[in-house]
Amino acid sequence: MNDQSAAFEQLRFATSDLPVAERWPTFLDMGRTVAKVDCMPLEDDFFVDGSFCKLPAAGVGSFSSSALRATRSRALAEGSDDLIFYMSIEGTANIAHLGREATVCAGESILVTSADPLRMDRSRIRYVHATIPRSVLAPTLRDFDSALMRPMPDTGEAVHLLRGYLSLLAATPSLQGSDISGLASAHVTDLIAFAVGATRDAAEIAAGRGVRAVRLRAIKADIESNLAVGDVGSDALAGRHRVSSASCSKARGHRSHNSCLAAGWRWSIARCSIHVLPIAPSAPSPSTSASATCRPSTTPSAGISA
Hints:
Blueprint: H1 3-6, E1 10-14, H2 20-35, E2 38-41, E3 48-55, E4 58-65, E5 68-72, H3 74-77, E6 82-90, E7 93-97, E8 100-104, E9 109-113, E10 118-122, E11 125-133, H4 134-137, H5 144-147, H6 157-170, H7 181-196, H8 200-207, H9 210-226, H10 234-241, H11 245-252, H12 257-262, H13 264-270, E12 299-300
Antiparallel strand pairs: 1-3, 2-5, 3-4, 4-11, 5-10, 6-9, 6-11, 7-8, 7-10, 8-12
C-alpha cells in the first residue's frame, strides 16, 4: 500500500464532526492524501461518514456519503499498485476504468486497481471496500485480467460473508496491533479470492482458513443479535448459514455473553474448528443479475487520461 495510507492504522471521519465551512476542504484533502482521488460533490447536501482500518496486508473501510464524483488521474495513481474490492450496500456507482465502463448496483461488487486512472460517479451510497497489494491478491486468482471491472452479484457465500466482515473490521479499533490482525488480513484476501475466482491451490487454502473462520464469526454474531427474540436453534442457524447442525451446536455452546464480547475476535479466528459444507470458488458471472434493471452491460470506454 502507498506510504501515505500506511501512516494510518485507524481512521474515522465524519463531516458532522466539523464546522460546515471546513467539511468540504477537509474531505478533499483526505481524498487526495489517503484515497488518491479528487472529489466533486454531485448534490448540495454534502456529507461523509466512514471508518478505515489498516491491517498488515490489507486496508478495509466502511463509508456512507452523499452523491460524489471521484477521479483518479495518472499523476495521483503514480506509485500505487493496490487492488480495491468495492461492494455497494446501498446506492449505485458508475465506473470508467481500464478502458471499460460498468455500473455497480446495491448488493454488487467490483475489483479495480489503484495504479490506473479511474472515474466513479456515485449516487447517495453506503459501501464497504478492501484494499490489498496486487502482489498478494493477483497470484490467488484464476484469471486476473478478466476479474477486473466485472460487476459481481451478491449470490455467492464469499460475497455474503465479506459484507459483514469488512464492516466489522473497519469499526474494530481493538484489532490494531493484536496478534490476530495478520490472520484477519489473510481472511479478507481468502474471501475476495473466492468471490472473484480463486486458483485451485488458493481455494483449498482459503476453505480451511478464511472462509471457515469468517463463517464461524457470522454464526456467532447471529446468535448474539437474535438470542433474545429470534430462533437460534441449531437447525435454524444451519439453514441461515448453510452449515451442519452439529457445527451450529458447537457455536451455541460458546455463546455466553461474556465470552462473546471478551473473547470475540480471538475465539472466532484462532479457534475456528467448525465443520463446513463445501464451497466452490466463484466462476465468472454473467453480465446480468437480480439487479440487472439498474445497470446496462459492461461496455468498452475511451478511458481516462490526465
